[in-house]
Design a protein that fits this description.
Layout: H1 2-28, H2 34-39, E1 41-44, E2 46-49, E3 53-62, E4 67-70, E5 76-81, E6 88-89, E7 94-99, H3 101-132, H4 138-164, E8 175-179, E9 184-189, E10 196-197, E11 206-209, E12 213-221, E13 233-238, E14 246-257, E15 263-271, E16 282-288, E17 294-299, E18 304-306, E19 309-317, E20 320-325, E21 328-332, E22 335-338, E23 347-351, H5 353-362
Antiparallel strand pairs: 1-23, 2-17, 3-12, 3-16, 4-11, 5-7, 5-10, 6-9, 7-8, 9-11, 12-15, 13-14, 13-16, 14-15, 17-22, 18-19, 19-20, 19-23, 21-22
Helix pairs in contact: 3-4
Length: 363
């Protein structure tokens, strides 16, 4: 009998203990008060078009398809350099004065050729008179004509050489001038007074561009290469003009990686009618994906970042809230795209969520 009483008491004690534990566990659940419920804000998880943006660094360059490169016409020494980098020039404006032994030699050859032509012409006239009077043979007359034609041909070659080396912009002292063939700006200058130049080294002395449109060259690092394609929309923000934005498209993508920067170069062509963009100016380039990829998106303000991870608070009811870690893919303006952690249609707390988050993780 006593044994039955003891067993009954132990069973009652065990049931009481279990009931106590269940009550304690239930009391540990976080319940949103009515006051807090009125203060919070909710928004839903949905599918959105992932028009993400990629920020790149870049610089302005002149349009290499719309420039004139000025090369020396002959070897020699630069006597005067008349322009500076960035100068605006007019068509026909003098860029440099050069003294060249080649040009001086051409004029010396021209003087000699003129003398040869005069002698050959006098001999031809004499041969023609003698031939008409029956004193000279037809063969002698033909030789005189041939010599005269050879002298003219030699002179024409010298004149052509002079024209190539400056023509009317050169003189017998061996000086010739380089002039601008277009209206534009000096965007490259590679010579100064006193420099010795040679036409066979392939280097231009000046580059002139009208700068009506320019290239923006941006660097894309290897991890971002899949995010940029030809035709994508681009916003260009020059550092010099604050928040001023210019719009264009990705015009060309390099197929090689720069060995120094380990980046791929992309080109954007921009109109420059106001002449605001200057070569070598730094800009920020924002490339927008226009392919319409869809992904789950949530309000950016709903995301809580803790120790390198991202979380949200999912709201089912006042007494059913939970913390979920999310995999952030990309953030654009007020939208954050996620790859996991939430489902379409779920409600998220977007205001006062940090307080709720701290309460939930402390339980």
């Amino acid at each position: 009998m006593n044994r039955l009483i003891i067993l009954s008491m132990l069973a009652s004690l065990l049931l009481y203990s279990c009931d106590k534990k269940e009550v304690k566990a239930e009391s540990d659940n976080f319940v949103l008060s009515d006051t807090m419920a009125r203060m919070i804000q909710l928004d839903s998880v949905r599918f959105c078009t992932m028009d993400y943006e990629l920020s790149l660094s870049g610089e302005v360059n002149f349009n290499e398809n719309s420039v004139i490169k000025i090369f020396p016409r002959g070897s020699g020494q630069v006597l005067e350099s008349k322009v500076s980098l960035g100068d605006k020039v007019r068509r026909g404006q003098v860029l440099a004065v050069i003294r060249s032994a080649d040009v001086a030699g051409n004029y010396a050859d021209l003087n000699s050729a003129n003398a040869d032509v005069m002698i050959a012409k006098r001999q031809l006239d004499n041969a023609e008179g003698l031939y008409k009077n029956g004193i000279a043979s037809e063969r002698e007359f033909a030789e005189a004509k041939e010599n005269y034609q050879k002298a003219l041909s030699a002179k024409n070659k010298v004149v052509s050489a002079i024209n190539i080396n400056g023509g009317g912009n050169s003189n017998a002292n061996g000086q010739y001038i380089l002039t601008s063939p277009i209206d534009g700006y000096i965007v490259e200058k590679k010579t100064n007074a006193g420099d010795f130049i040679r036409p066979d080294n392939g280097e231009n002395l000046f580059t002139i561009s009208d700068l009506k449109d320019v290239w923006v060259m941006a660097n894309v690092y290897e991890t971002d290469i899949p995010k940029v394609k030809q035709g994508y929309n681009v916003k260009v923000i020059p550092s010099a003009y604050g928040d001023k934005v210019m719009y264009g498209k990705v015009d060309q993508i390099s197929q090689v990686i720069d060995p120094q920067s380990k980046a791929m170069r992309v080109r954007i062509v921009l109109p420059n009618n106001e002449m605001l963009l200057k070569p070598d100016m730094f800009v920020r380039v924002i490339v927008s994906n226009i392919e319409g990829y869809r992904a789950l998106c949530i309000p950016s303000k709903s995301v809580i970042s803790q120790e390198g991870k991202n979380y949200v608070v999912i709201y089912n009811s006042k007494n059913d809230l939970k913390v979920s870690e999310v995999n952030v893919l990309h953030t654009v303006n007020n939208q954050t795209f996620v790859g996991s952690g939430v489902e379409a249609g779920q409600l998220l707390v977007t205001d006062k969520q940090l307080f709720i988050f701290n309460e939930l993780i402390s339980k």
